[in-house]
Amino acid sequence: MRILLHICCGPCALYPILTLQAAGHDVTGFFYNHNIHPYTEYLKRRDTALQMAEQNGIDLIVHDDYDLEGFLANVANEPDRRCTYCYSSRLKATAKAAVKGEFEAFTSSLLYSRYQKHDEINQLGARFGDEAGVAFLYEDFRQGWQQGIKLSKEMGLYRQQYCGCIYSEKERYLQK
């Protein structure tokens, strides 16, 4: 299958790419992460995704739309629901890009992370896939967590220390 892989960051994409390619799929990356904070962090993640794609010989579509204001407008009243908005906006954009690019399916490197809500990602991916007319491929990539970390270090990729939004950055530094 031709699969469009939403890439949240370069290191998290490594294991999903290798797994999908080992299964015989043709993988193209799709970088869309409009809510990363601060902007310098967004640039590091975008550039690392480009570096990772080049080192792994995959095509990468970069939807370079930084929209912190839009993210904040959608989550400021309910910051505890920010992940739902984040998943939804990125998966919906990936589904649309998959249809436009005539991909057979789409998925996300979010499914590599131990920290993401897999059930919610799966439900949203399936919903947006159905709405757009393209299959959402759910695969639990978490078993490759350590392998992905090892590979990203070997490749010298920038490894972020928080999920990405302003709220997760706050949680990283705030002493409880």
Quick synopsis:
With 176 residues, this protein is an alpha/beta fold.
Work out the radius of gyration: 15 Å
How large is the share of residues in beta strands?
Answer: 5-15%
- Helix content estimate: 40-55%
What fold name stands as the CATH topology? Answer: Rossmann fold
CATH homologous superfamily grouping: HUPs
Distance between the termini: 46 Å
Along the chain, the helix and strand elements come as: EHEHEHHEHEHH
Overall CATH class: Alpha Beta
Care to count the β-strands?
A: 5
Which CATH-level-2 architecture? 3-Layer(aba) Sandwich
Query: Into how many domains do the coordinates divide?
Result: 1
What are the low-pLDDT stretches, counting only 5+ consecutive residues below 50?
none
Main sheet properties: 5 strands, parallel
**What is the 3D shape?**
globular
Number of helices: 7
Could you characterize what this model shows?
The protein has 176 residues and is of the alpha/beta class. The protein has one domain: 3-Layer(aba) Sandwich (Rossmann fold). Helices cover 52% and strands 12% of the residues. Helix 1 (10-22) packs parallel to helix 2 (39-56) and helix 1 packs across helix 6 (145-154). The longest helix has 19 residues, at 82-100. The N and C termini lie far apart (46 Å).
Blueprint of the fold:
Elements: E1 2-7, H1 10-22, E2 26-31, H2 39-56, E3 60-62, H3 68-75, H4 82-100, E4 105-108, H5 118-132, E5 135-136, H6 145-154, H7 166-173
Parallel strand pairs: 1-2, 1-4, 2-3, 4-5
Helix pairs in contact: 1-2, 1-6, 4-5
